[in-house]
Design brief:
The chain is α/β, with parallel strands linked by helices and 347 residues long. It has helices spanning 3-6, 17-26, 38-54, 71-81, 97-105, 123-135, 172-175, 189-203, 209-217, 223-240, 247-256, 266-278, 286-293, 297-310, 325-330; strands spanning 61-64, 86-90, 112-116, 137-142, 149-154, 159-164, 180-183, 206-207, 244-245, 314-317, 320-323. It starts with a helix and ends in a 17-residue tail after the last helix.
């Protein structure tokens, strides 16, 4: 049983069904209402204004960045700003070129096509997308073998908004066909406080400035996580207090859900705890560390490590994973004396 099967993480930046339902209600409807990502928002505003003045479809847009930072929201805002319908699909859903041809051939003029997880699209579909983006044409192959015939289909002008969490996996020919590329950064606490106040208003939740600051500080720089924590603290305030979220109520509520003052949850602390207590801070191999916390290697590497590295609590070295002085301080432990630690082999 994996960590996700046993206990879904409250600080997971991926969206579940509940998140998607709430995000629909909380999602900003235009760029003016969108909080954060100042540079991307300013650049995208220029692209969309220019397209409206020309009376044509906007250039294709590529948005990259970690989950939960607003890529889907911006895609919907592109459609709203252009007063165009939007069609939503994802890379994993397009496994054959025919799947993509069916979508593209049914697009209306000016329509926005949002392709999430673009890097996971199949190679044949990807090659078809090149022609569609650049030449507004797709070749549909009819028949098989020597008698196969390619029938060209002309496409109306449309705007593709692609989103990816792993821009490095996109082939250069695909990246080059996007007229605008925006990278989504993690949010500062002050920006998350603005997100939380806006969400609290829409959810009819009373939260003071100190309460919002407390939640923002534990949200790992991600609006989706901030909104999720807000909902859980709302539940705590409703059941255990008078419904008003103050700093004390937010701290007590998040303590119940085991999210500490830096946003670490049980899995994060288990990884750090094993690294510090069992292996004297490392270096230790990833497989050994995963066994020590009872998780799959991929879970530790892809779920826990990125945030721990970003927070400066863990470092990846050629010899293995190593805890930083900040990790010892965060867990309230004393580092071993030089020469007294265990030497581990990385594998």
């Amino acid at each position: 049983m994996t960590w996700e099967d046993a206990d879904p993480r409250l600080v997971d930046s991926a969206a579940d069904a509940d998140d998607r339902a709430v995000e629909t209600a909380l999602r900003p409807k235009d760029l003016a209402e969108f909080v954060g990502q100042e540079r991307v928002r300013e650049q995208l505003d220029l692209v969309l204004r220019a397209a409206r003045q020309r009376g044509g479809a906007a250039d294709h847009v590529l948005l990259s960045g970690a989950p939960g930072l607003g890529k889907t929201t911006l895609a919907m805002i592109v459609a709203a700003e252009m007063a165009a319908p939007i069609r939503i699909t994802s890379g994993p859903a397009i496994q054959h070129a025919g799947d993509l041809a069916a979508i593209l051939s049914s697009l209306q003029e000016g329509e926005v096509l949002f392709l999430d997880e673009l890097h996971r699209m199949s190679r044949p579909a990807e090659e078809m997308l090149y022609m569609a983006m650049e030449d507004l044409r797709v070749d549909v192959v009819v028949g098989k073998g020597p008698g196969a015939t390619a029938i060209p289909l002309e496409l109306p002008p449309f705007t593709l908004v692609g989103a990816t969490t792993r821009a490095g996996l996109l082939p250069p020919p695909l990246r080059d066909r996007f007229g605008f590329t925006g990278h989504m950064e993690f949010y500062a606490p002050a920006e998350l406080e603005r997100v939380l106040h806006r969400s609290a208003h829409l959810l009819d939740v009373e939260v003071d400035a100190a309460g919002a600051a407390e939640i923002a500080g534990r949200s790992r720089g991600t609006p989706r996580i901030a909104n999720r924590l807000l909902r859980r603290v709302r539940d705590y305030a409703q059941v255990k207090a008078d419904g008003v979220i103050t700093r004390e109520i937010a701290a007590r509520g998040l303590e119940v859900y085991e999210v500490d003052d830096r946003g670490l949850d049980r899995l994060d602390r288990a990884v750090l705890g094993a690294l510090l207590k069992l292996f004297s801070g490392g270096p230790v191999g990833l497989s050994t560390l995963a066994v020590a916390v009872g998780e799959e290697r991929e879970t530790v590497e892809e779920v826990a490590e990125p945030f721990l590295v970003r927070e400066g609590l863990l470092a990846r070295t050629p010899r293995g994973r190593v805890a930083t002085p900040a990790a010892w301080a965060h867990l309230g432990l004393t580092p071993p004396q030089p020469g007294g630690g265990m030497q581990q082999t990385a594998f």
